[in-house]
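Let us begin with a simple case.
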Amino acid sequence: GVPIAIELDPHCNLTIERCRLADIIVLFKEYPHIDFVERGEELLDMLLATIRGEIRPVKSLWDCRLIQNFPTTRQPMRGFVDKIMTMERKDKILSISIGHGFQSADMPESGARILVVTDDAKAHGDAVAEALGRELWAIKDVSDPPHLEPGEAIEAALKAYRDKPIVIADTTDNAGGGAPSDNTTFIRELLARGVTGAAVGPVWDPVAVRFCHDAGLGAKLPLRFGGKAAKASGPPVDADVEIIGLSENGSQTFGGGKVPLGATAAIRAGGVEVVLITTRAQAMGLDLFSHLGIDPAAKKILVVKSNQHFHAAYAPIAADVLYADGDGPMVRNVLKLDYKRIARPIWPFDAVVHPKLLL
């Protein structure tokens, strides 16, 4: 008899059981997830209205039978999200959520799903969920931006630079998806090419951070950093560095909140500056760099270890944003993943699939 309402990241898996057990589910709509406060307020409003007996939420869940990346900062996904937001709070529709799914999860109920919550209008909710699910299917081939190899991304950035930074997302070393964030491929490529005016971050290496703090600001020393967690981290970088920034309690901003980075250090090796962190996180706010005295807007190339959450802060200062499919553990091409438990058929593994209403 107690209403249960939950707010979730759209990269959750909208399982049938989860949707049956909760009275109301609302997912963040934006990717990067900058709207969690607004969605939380909507959720609370619906929960209170349910308790007061003003609405009777019912759910419709459509399985799209596809695995794909859906950033909302570009078309056609931008327009799709804008459309569903205009549909809410009309015609008995209380909420519409796009469950992107988590493509690295090897479980039977992986994949994209549409969840529609209506005010006691199940048949209408079912029809809306199906229509939106089929619309999402129609844009699946063009929703994800192209991804370059690391060398290609650097070359493209050097050619495109004019007076604003070119941002490169090192997507396969994204701590937000579970990667260590200590892959060294981009750093080694930048150093080998003799690139100047470049910055990379964050690189998770608590040991190197401690060495930097012990040596002190302005110190110059040979330092081994990165490449520690796993084979996919690549070999460590050995370089003569200068310590250009230190913080015992570093942080970055995201969606109005503070994301802790622990003790941090900024080092300069040749023409490349690197932010080292202790508390593992992906790149989100510009203060990832600026809290250590690095001005991200003054750089030619910014390599950020993130899939998409960097975009809200970095795109406004950038001439262009490129996405790289590096050799970190978060494989971008799902066809390369060795799934064993996902339910088949599902796109892109199968050409013929069977989308359906689940709830």
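The second case is a distinct protein. As before, the sequence precedes its structure tokens.
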Amino acid sequence: MRLYGKGQRQIVRGLTISDAIHLPKAYRKDIYKHLYFCLKFDPESHLKKIGHDDDKNFFREWLIGRINFVYSIDKNVAEDMFEKLNRINWPL
């Protein structure tokens, strides 16, 4: 157990609760990174580049799950992520 003083970043279960409840910036940036590269190239090329080409069947569902978690905390950010997700050309 850790005790955090005033002014320090306070994290509980992956959520930052210092001044208000929000997700860490690194979590949001990771999702935006995947969305960016899927839009720039395509999901299969992105997965091959990061070495997860065997996970291509579940990548979209994994990404939707992460965005749904963001939606439960910050709806405005998640709506932007869903808009980008819907622009991706997913293979059938």
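The CA atoms of residues 14 and 23 lie 7 Å apart. The chain has four helices and two strands.
Keep these points in mind for the review questions at the end of the chapter.
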